């Protein structure tokens, strides 16, 4: 009864109003604490970053000590540290990290905040058993960056990459049913979001709305989201943002550790097992390796009142790496394999026009399915191989040459419900080969300057495997992209400035047979992109970031040439070969407030995109022997995206913490004066966490109560197949327990999503026309580290 009253209250008070008052509240807190901080006498802050001198990679667990005050800090996973409540004066700072030369430096603190970067140099010493890890590239950008690691990443285990990233404000998912989801950043997804698997851009058939990323989240110990336009750094497909999936750094000395995950879920009766092991050589200093694998199986998903037919999935994955690192040279080889089979909701494929109209009007399947693990047609079978070789060589202490080669093979088969022998053949059978080469030179100067110059080459070949009996949805094609770029950064005191420039040239050759006739196309695209950004510490507690960048993206093969039934999406898609490149201007601003009890991050952005490409329903249907399907077409229009993300936490006491995350986005069609389809609704996620362990270790037991509020999407295009679903409110409950077993640790977690089994439909789910989303789901998670 309580959850119904809460939901009615939410409907009475619009989501925008709720967030409006939240912003006012937090701004009031900003002003209050800012005044208090300036009223104090010793309110200075020293913050900064600890990096490896030879390659500018971040150093975790370095110790920073102020001799005069006998206070210090330890750098976090990104190399950052902060020391508060310092008086004006001159201080002696020491920085220590095992295997590196100690830094001793004198600093004169006068302003409210001093920002200092320390670069540590490796030292050749016999450390006898000291654990020194290989380096991971530090994320150095002035745009909005958020990472999942540690406890937050542990709690997301068992979820897909898209679902895991929903824990970050401003990131949602675009899904096809309850088993296929892909991340959305500020309204952008698919070919506008770049995903890097251990530094290699993930290249599959990501153009499809129902083509989930071919990556296993278990391989990562950190997942980072960059929300700005990052085409200068990473290339055209990064115009909407970047997702970095990073495995643990390889050890370079004797060390062995193993981690095991065992998970189960009530909805779909899912089982998931994952294990990883890393170690370093005792005989060969600098040699390390890592092995990781996972298996996952789930049956039909259940909505609150019915089971969804043919919505099971199976998945098994593997990754491994080996590397060697010395003072001047580093070499690493990496391989990952991803394999999944996904059932597609059977009721999304209807027999005739009246069946399609009736199921959309009914809003749920007519059939009452039974639970099963069996996966029938329609379904997807996807395999993805990724291999890379990476090397760096230190020319001297200030210059480093980097080389990276990546190879990928993506195989995608989509099976439709067909008659006779054809039912065993895929209706879509694609193989995509991708080769990437990155050569770049990092440098740093003693005058606070650092940067890089780079060359990037991407070559792709896409083939339709014969024998489907269907005209290919997209043609065979070859693509070549050449990019050169330069990025420079200046850092001094509380100010950090960064800028970059890039030029790309792309050729695209496509061919296919349609009705016995050969259709060919040769296209060329080229463009410049640039950005400029900065970070400035306004006060001891406030930091402001601003990043302004241009970006571009050439149209993808499906947007140009789609001409038929897309089986996995259960829709007919029509492309336009006359489309031109998208060009955008994105401005991202961030304000961060941090004190002992409060942490608040507010990000506001505006993105003007010329010739924005979008998939729009036509209102027509296509009738064939395989069923009746809605027809969509790719269109272009000038667009204006704008909105903000808000995230914050408050420590009420040593045992009680509260959190809040919210996002609002608007996507205006400037040509038509209306709104674009498939844009996330306004949403807010808030909750409270209570620790009740013993006084010696209060965080050993913790319970978390969360509430997700999602508004109705009232800014729809002029035509849609069905009205946007109503707003909804979900309650979630979690429990975590940590057990120390000698030198090992066992983590136990129980998670209940959608506690009250609320029936709801997510606007960003393409199958919302046919079914509700998942009902209550109880998960048990075990994690053992030894």
Automatic annotation (TrEMBL):
The keyword Transmembrane helix is annotated on this UniProt entry: yes
Coiled-coil region: none
Sequence ranges assigned to domain TonB-dependent receptor plug in this UniProt record: 140-242
Biological process annotations from GO: siderophore transmembrane transport
Subcellular location: Cell outer membrane
Record-stated family: Belongs to the TonB-dependent receptor family.
Lineage: Bacteria, Pseudomonadati, Bacteroidota, Cytophagia, Cytophagales
GO cellular component terms attached to this protein's record: cell outer membrane
PROSITE patterns per the UniProt record, alphabetical: TONB_DEPENDENT_REC_3
UniProt KW keywords: Cell outer membrane, Membrane, TonB box, Transmembrane, Transmembrane beta strand, Transmembrane helix, Transport
Residue span(s) of domain TonB-dependent receptor-like beta-barrel: 363-755
Main location: membrane
Gene3D superfamilies noted in UniProt: Carboxypeptidase-like, regulatory domain, TonB-dependent receptor, beta-barrel domain, TonB-dependent receptor, plug domain
InterPro entries hit by this protein: Beta-barrel_TonB (IPR000531), Beta-barrel_TonB_sf (IPR036942), CarboxyPept-like_regulatory (IPR008969), Plug_dom (IPR012910), Plug_dom_sf (IPR037066), TonB-dep_rcpt-like (IPR039426)
TM region positions: 12-33
Topology of this chain in the membrane: Multi-pass membrane protein
Organism for this UniProt entry: Algoriphagus alkaliphilus
Molecular function as annotated in GO: siderophore uptake transmembrane transporter activity
Name of the protein this chain belongs to: Iron complex outermembrane recepter protein
UniProt keyword Endoplasmic reticulum present: no
